[in-house]
Design brief:
Blueprint lengths: L1 E6 L8 H15 L3 E6 L28 H10 L2 E5 L9 H8 L10 E2 L7 E2 L8 E8 L9 H13 L2 E9 L15 H17 L4 H7 L7 H19 L44 H10 L10 E9 L11 E7 L2 E6 L7 E6 H8 L5 H6 L4 E4 L1 H10 L3 E2 L5 H11 L15 E10 L2 E8 L2 E6 L7 E6 H8 L5 H6 L4 E4 L1 H10 L6
Parallel strand pairs: 1-2, 1-3, 3-6, 6-7, 8-11, 13-14, 14-17
Antiparallel strand pairs: 4-5, 8-9, 9-10, 11-12, 14-15, 15-16, 17-18
This protein binds flavin mononucleotide.
Flavin mononucleotide binds next to α1.
Length: 511
Amino acid sequence: MKILALNGSPRMKASSTYHILAPFLAGMKAAGAEVELIHIRRLNLEVCIGCYTCWARTPGVCIHDDSMADVLQKFNTADMVIFGTPLYHFSMSGIMKTFIDRLLPRFEPWLIPHPHVPGVTGHPERVQKPYKMFLVSPGGFPEFEHFDSLVATFKQMARMENWEYTGEILRPGAEPLSRRSLQNLFTGYYTLLRQAGEELIRDGRISDNLQLQLREDLFPGGKEVFYQLAEGYWTEQMDKFKVPQEQRHTVPLLAKDLDSTPMAPAGSNITNDTSKTGDRYYVSNEVIMQTMTAMYDTKAAPNLQATIQFQIIPPKIDFDPGEAMWYLEINGARCDLHQGKTAIPTLSITTPYEVWYDIGIGNVDALEAFTNGDYEATGSQKLLNDMLHLFPRPEPGSDDPLAAELDTLMMGMPTAFNPEAAKGTNAVIQFILSGKGGGLYFLNIAEGKCTVQRGAAKNPTMTIHCPAETWLAISTGKLDGHQAFMQEKYRVSGDMAILLKFNTMFDTHTN
Ligand SMILES: Cc1cc2nc3c(=O)[nH]c(=O)nc-3n(C[C@H](O)[C@H](O)[C@H](O)COP(=O)(O)O)c2cc1C
């Protein structure tokens, strides 16, 4: 006897449905049945769109090219189908209903007097075969009457489609069944389920006595104990997600302007693998994160409150970049960097070190890298998309004339350096030149010498945040540096005294 069992719980193997199905099907196997279990959620299953292609254009064949064609074959050749579904809103789960809707190609369009139900209309079946069906359903509430409409639905389906309804196993108060810690409580119930499976195959039905036993409470104490257990469980669950006092700044996960779709790029291929091992990679995670924080555009989202958690996977090269966990706390115009973990981040990013470094300096586009599966993100998709505006990054682009000009200018800064004016000044000046043609550069001024490097400095004394175009205009004298600063066309963080000396130390047009 061929049995096709369907698990319609989206929780698949973690479900109560599966905890009932598993011993029940084991009993059937022991009695000699050939059993196949399909977790519906694992299928690639489109919803029926009601196009009737399977009736008119390609009779018997659905318009969707997904898993259903294969499953239909199994369905049509099974001797019995076990429908396993959790009770959802007094009915079956959505995925079970989707599955059942997709059985439409089994029928022909014609309206005929039902061959077995007098006075009622039906459709001829394309595949005529005596089926048996059986229903398995767990529900959360502890009473049987909640299943009434579900059972009525399956019985109606059986009657109209001429299946033999061979019975049901309903399990009210079933939630504890799926809890690992309680499994010892249910060994007796599982034995009964196994027996039921054996009887169903051997005798074609489950005996009255066994059916009665299967309807008994899962544990003694009645509803009172059941309520206590449920309350204990949900209190524990809610405690788990409570935000500690010191992290109360954390923004509610369901902030109305943020969605909360879990996401991970398709075929995510996060690895530590990189062939790129240059000097530029030897900066700490802290510097990478500080640089990113510095890029925050204070005007981009005045009302945004969010936290972004980062976990940086260590680099492949033999270099310890330090603490892996960092989070950004965004509160309108402020963006603060914190070490460690925040309780409920709005967005979480797990990234290899090299990937985030490259994104940070503009070598790689953040969204493209996400689509490529170079890093993973969970939480708000909207916030992930918005990060491009919130943290305007350099976009160097080698064929961009602006980038080339700016790069020449920045790399040439030591030639404009005036050691006399810089006497007594030791400083690292970081430039974050954002947007099109931008890049990261830093000047190292020490003992009357000035060197320049592309990338992020370890501990900048001062950081200049400026759109690439604006910095080019200032450097070439088209824009007055002082005025531009007053007009907030660029920002400076760190030791402002360096800015005051900047003009004399370099023969540029920044005054
Ligand atoms: C969307 C949804 C709707 C539910 N509706 C009901 C219901 O109408 N009656 C009930 O007793 N339990 C209801 N429950 C509880 C589930 O039936 C119960 O938790 C069951 O054990 C889940 O089975 P599973 O682990 O196999 O998915 C509902 C649960 C969900 C998630």
